[in-house]
Amino acid sequence: MMPKSLQSPSRLPEMDPAIWSRLPEELLENVLSFLPLKTFLNLRSTCKHFKSLMFSRSFMSRHTASGSPFSSFLLLSHPQFYQEFPLYDSIVGSWRNLTLSLSLLLPGTGSNVSPSCTLLSSSNGLICFSLPSSCSLLVCNFVAKSSRIVEFPTHPLTFESFVFVPVSSGYKIFVLCSKFSSNSVFVYDSKVHSWQKFDRFEPILGDNYRQEGVFFNGSLYFTTSEPFSIVCFALESGRWERLDSELPGDLTFVRLVSDGKKKLYLIGGVGRNGISRSMKLWELDDKRDWIEVESLPEMMCKKFLSVCYHNYERVYCFLHEGMICICCYTWPEILYYKISRRTWHWLPKCPSLPEKWSCGFRWFSFVPELHALV
């Protein structure tokens, strides 16, 4: 005859407090690290120890490594959302009923938060704003509610290219300025809180300065105007080089995205006489050859090209948690490619956007990181 405990599978055995109360803290934290973030956050109110784990670097690192990530968001910046930034949860797949508010989350910035404050970049849990009135930058961590004012190296606060680069235990800021007699690059290192200037180089980027560079293997990569090519800037040495790889033919525009270390992708329009007939995605292989990965389906391609009116200067791209996002300043939706599934999708329009919306859509990848240092 079967034991009674096996005859009633729905009845769970009681947990003996005498045993579980002696469980080593390290093992308990390891068990908790496998919980979904939402479940763990609900446990914070049960005891002081659980609440303190939110501020434990070792526990949060273990939580992330266990496959229970924080929510990751696509953040929308638009002139009609004054200093507020709607969030799309890319894990849940829907818009959240909350926004990031610069004035509410960072009250200590005081008078530095002005109408001219502009969101410039987001990376590794940090968000960077420009503060033209004080000729400075504001770097902040909304989760930790910490911020830092970085004095801009020139007056006034103007630049042709701006890149916010995550590095180990900090970040770097790349700024390209052409207001001087020779083009100059300024690089800010958060570890030493200072700027380094590199100048006296040829303007190899041509007229296409305003494209944001992408970080890949220690360098920033940029595309030039026609005839298209790719150049890179080494952050440590300050040297410019031209990438020795032949680009695909019949390109009408090109954009780059990267995961920082392993993958460098190229998105481009293919056509003649400056008019795109199709859009394709390529990946740079170990031999520095561009290998075609996917083509955008015809109907989706027609829609995207129609919303940007073949004005490709309005197109920009970035990588977000395995999604290659292709955006247009004039359109409220994101076209994205899911790398793992090799599928194309449209992100739904923000529901809080007014019916009569204007241009100026800026999208950013925002992955909260409690311990990201400003």
From TrEMBL:
SMART domains per record: FBOX (SM00256)
Top-rank lineage group of the source organism: Eukaryota
Every F-box domain range: 17-63
Family matches, as Pfam families: F-box, FBA_1
Protein name per Swiss-Prot or TrEMBL: F-BOX/KELCH-REPEAT PLANT PROTEIN
Organism per entry: Salix purpurea (Purple osier willow)
Organism lineage string: Eukaryota, Viridiplantae, Streptophyta, Embryophyta, Tracheophyta
